[in-house]
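agent> Task received from the user: take the single chain below, predict its 3D structure, and emit structure tokens. No templates, no multimer pairing.
agent> Plan: (1) validate residues, (2) run structure prediction, (3) serialize to tokens, (4) report one or two observations.
agent> Step 1 OK, no nonstandard residues flagged.
tool_call: predict_structure(input=
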Amino acid sequence: YFLTGAAKLVVVIAIFLLTFYVISQVFEIKMDANLGHIFARSALDAAARSTKPPRYKCGISKACPEKHFAFKMSSGAANVVGPKICVEDNVLMSGVKNNVGRGINMALVNGKTGELLDTKFFDMWGGDVAPLIEFLKTIQDGTIVLMATYDDGATKLNEEARRLIAELGSTSITNLGFRDNWVFCGGKGIKTKSPFEQHIKNNKDTNKYEGWPEVVEMEGCIPQKQD
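)
tool_result: status=success, residues=227
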């Protein structure tokens, strides 16, 4: 019985050691596999981060220099999708925000801080030009003015309204016609013509949509007003 008991003990110990060895080998293999998977995934993530292009404010194509405000804007698409105005990564006007409308859409921004001052839209098809003229006259010096058309932004414009917008730096406003698409960024007190303006004429031979030209988009960097 003693020998049998001793033999049994040896067998039990051997089985225990073998089981421990097998488990440890499996565990180590799994650990190695998991570590390999983690390292491989980290390498892939790092590669993806290195190849993914950086995102700039408002989604513009390159970063603005210091003391400049990034902006991006687009006109409306026919009479279906409203315009969009973004400054310093803040969407100021859009269909999603439900603060755009037919005619001329306008956002006023503080030229020193980039802070939104006001947003308005003026119906230049079925509305009156008088409220637009009065609003333009209240704009203070140093204010950045961004405008975008939607549907039709020109029918009710008169000479006075066009002159007031031209004084903000626009050159295309004198030629803005029925259902033209137009985006503009200027300022009150500007000394020169603004470089930020896009205009596409309504032309039945070239229109992208039936009765309307294609959407116009524009982006850039607005110099911060200095004292």
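agent> Step 4: summary for the user.
Helices lie at 2-51, 130-138, 159-166.
agent> Done.
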